[in-house]
Specification:
Helices cover about 75% and strands about 0% of the residues. It has 4 helices and no strands. The longest helix has about 50 residues. It starts with a helix and ends in a 7-residue tail after the last helix.
Length: about 80
């Protein structure tokens, strides 16, 4: 009986290890896909920015350099409070 318990325990430990390994592999595949999608999106953005002379819309919402230099942050502007860092 004790021998069977030990064999079952070993088998369960192997199964647990296999399941963990499969989870890690699946997570790696998902992250790899996300990185590939992000890379493709950035490449498309670069290609589009080369075609158009206008700056992208996202940059129009960012803070200007002089405001950044004096320490005004985006969060400060949104909350209508200005502070110097």
């Amino acid at each position: 009986m004790r021998l069977q318990d030990q064999q079952l325990a070993r088998q369960l430990m192997r199964l647990r290890g296999d399941i963990n390994k499969l989870r890690i592999e699946q997570t790696c595949r998902l992250h790899r896909r996300m990185l590939n999608d992000a890379t493709c999106e950035l490449e498309e953005r670069d290609e589009l920015s080369d075609l158009f002379c206008d700056s992208p819309l996202a940059s129009s919402f960012s803070l200007s350099t002089p405001l950044k230099l004096i320490g005004v942050t985006k969060m400060n502007i949104n909350s209508r409070r200005f502070s110097l860092c």
